[in-house]
Amino acid sequence: MKSVAVIVPALNEAANIVANMAKVRACLNDVPGITFTLIVVDDGSTDGTAALVRDAGVQDPLLRVLRLNRHFGKESAIYAGLCAAQAFDACVVMDSDLQHPPALIAQMVEHWQAGALVVEAVKQSRGNETPLRKALVQIYYGLFRYLTKLSIRGESDFKLLDRSVVNAYCQLPEHGRFFRGLVKWMGYDAVQIPFDVPESTRLRSAWGNTALFRYAINSITSFTAYPLQIVTLLGGLTFLVSLVIGGMALFDKLSGAAVDGFTTVILLILIIGSVLMFSVGLIGIYVGRIYEEVKRRPGYLVDQAGSTLVDAKPKTTTTPAAKKRAATRPPASRSRSGKVTTQDPQQP
């Protein structure tokens, strides 16, 4: 029987984590022929999220918690969960606030059993986002595609990865990770399932505008050094502007029409100074990324005492109903030739 780990990064979700994981487990019970283990990766929560999951795990042995020593960030939490689940046949990554509909996991498993190495849920609508944020997101997608030559438009962290993809992802040596971008960069066969983003169970989003802007900058600079060419472009533009303004000033001087004052000089200083400061800041971003990479610090540290995921060996227990359905279900083929696509618009 195939085993699948469902990895759920969580940060300060004590108000909803137990109820949300119960809903996820209810959807997992309806998938035949698969043994699921639900792994909540607690990213250094301060509200007792890990303790609640541990207590719930007493009643449900397939519910585990992997607690990190402190808050390392969502990307590190996903990485920690995937590294801990490399022994499973596949892994599903999803958010803890149910904005990734758990009912789609059944479709994901079907496509995976048919041969897809990656099954990704793509946002058909973005829920109740403000028009400004939607516009900024579209600009970000366009910038990311233009600069990196990789399209992640509408994609989310809600993905199913085959064991081979998980192993390849965990072997990547870089420290600063961008899960969606790296999975796309690896280029494995993929199926896309559209979905509408439902309401979040959180009262307030953990991603403010500042955090999203920082996330966008980090994701782009982790994939391409092309923005550094902007420095060269700005240098050329500044040189051209300087030639024009200098020519005008020289013409006025020779024609005797020069006006006393330092307007031209001030304009040149402002233009050149602004370009230099922008260029230094851009170079500083990349130097900072180099600094983080060369330190070779681990992306996360696990709190062994606060975790119940002692090892990554998948369990083999399943519900009687799932056993009965699995016995009557024909074996699925796993042809891996060619890229798998789908046009199934079914929504949960």
3D architecture notes:
- The longest helix has 33 residues, at 263-295.
- Mean pLDDT is 80; it is low at 312-348.
- The chain is built from 11 helices and 7 strands.
- The protein has helices at 17-28, 49-59, 74-84, 105-113, 131-148, 163-171, 179-186, 209-221, 229-255, 263-295, 320-328, and strands at residues 2-10, 34-42, 63-67, 90-93, 118-125, 155-162, 190-196.
- The chain is elongated and about 90 Å long.
- It folds into 2 domains: 2-224 and 299-328, Spore Coat Polysaccharide Biosynthesis Protein SpsA, Chain A (Alpha-Beta Complex), CATH 3.90.550; 226-295.
- Helix 1 (17-28) links the parallel strand 1 and strand 2 (34-42).
- It has a 7-stranded mixed sheet with strand order 3-2-1-4-6-5-7, with helices on both faces.
- It has 348 residues and is an alpha/beta fold.
